[in-house]
Amino acid sequence: MQTDDDTEQVVSTGSLPGWDRVEQLVQDAHARYRDLADGTVADYIPELAAADPAWFGVCVAESGGGLHLAGDAEVPFTIQSISKAFVYALVCEALGHRPVLDRVGVNNTGLPFNSVIAVELNDGHPMNPMVNAGAIATTALLPGGTPAGRWEHLTRGLDAFAGRRLEVDDVVYRSEAATNQRNRAIARLLESYGRIEADPLAVVDLYTRQCALRVTARDLAVMGATLADGGVNPLTGERVVSAQVCRDTLAVLASTGMYERSGEWLFEIGLPAKSGVAGGIVAVAPGKGAIGTFSPPLDPAGNSVRGQRATAHLSRSLGLNVFASSVHVTERAGAGR
Asked: Which pTM does this prediction carry?
């Protein structure tokens, strides 16, 4: 679909309630779901299996810089698949809208995140950057020329999104590197279709390391709020990416960020979002801010159970659903005069 209209875009996103109200609602969301016992901690990596199932943190970061924390919002965990969203933004910033769209795509596969069949069914096209094939293809597009140069560009960018230096969890990285044969196969398949020009195994190693970066629910909220604030980190004031890149990234998250559950998530919660197998979720309300949550027990789709419930509660109570609106009675009464 070509949309080359150069009309100036007008943005209208509203605002959050007052400080005290947001603070109260974040605490309420945490209290409401902290004793929920549903879900199972991921166990395919021993380090993930060792996570305390009682951990539960919630943070709302306002686009103006305010932070509202509850529970274990500063307990570190690995970012996992949530990294896909921010690496995609960095690549779009470096290469532009059209080249990344053509190479990676934006459409949902309707198949599991690590599907090999999806690549074959689409003639080697990875379809979108939130499934593993698309994420690997996206990581391969990072500037830098060498694996070390790409890693430097990646970490510098994700540090800027978080507003602080992020470190790799070496134990998780080594465990995942020892068991990522499927991702290596996907990378080789992409290479055979000409979708990856760099060394595919080096790209997979880079992707594995990016997933092992340690963050907190607070970090996720700040990173999401940077996307909500047109690419400017609300705490540091640093411009990380352009407003156009934020729009592109949030559109992709809305349609594919929760994999084959994306439609249901958008229908029920109405926010662009991304989850990770370590228990993190980030959800973004353009112009308003973002929600970061952390709780290790996952549902069968691999999404944090408490995190989903808390995000849904805050989306409703804070008025974040991007599809929600109310009638302006005074304007309606004056229509046609």
From this structure: 0.89
Is residue 55 a contact partner of residue 295, using CB atoms and an 8 Å limit?
yes
Q: Decide if 274 is catalytic.
A: no
Of 178, 173, 105, 97, nearest to 137 by C-alpha is 105
Kindly state which CATH superfamily the domain 19-80+215-317 is placed in.
DD-peptidase/beta-lactamase superfamily (3.40.710.10)
User: Among this protein's residues, is 277 annotated catalytic?
Assistant: yes
Check if 207 is active-site: yes
pLDDT digits (tens, 9 = 90+) for 157-198: 999 999 999 999 999 999 999 988 989 998 888 888 888 888
Q: Which of the residues 41, 60, 83, 84 is marked catalytic?
A: 84
- Structural domain spans, the chain: 19-80+215-317, 81-211
Is the per-residue pLDDT at 100 higher than 80?
no
Summarize pLDDT for 194-246 with one digit per residue, the tens: 888 889 999 999 999 999 999 999 999 999 999 999 999 999 999 999 999 99
Asked if the domains 19-80+215-317 and 81-211 are classified in one and the same CATH topology, the answer is yes
From 41, 60, 81, 275, the catalytic residue: 81
- Residue 222's nearest CA partner among 87, 86, 113 is 86
Which residues have C-beta within 8 Å of that of residue 89, sequence separation ≥ 6? Answer: 157, 161, 227, 240, 241, 245, 246, 248, 249
Give the model's pLDDT for residue 108. Answer: 55
Domain 81-211 has CATH 3.40.980.10: no
- 295 among known catalytic residues: no
Q: Which of 33, 88, 173, 259 is catalytic?
A: 259
Options 277, 284, 305, 322, the catalytic residue: 277
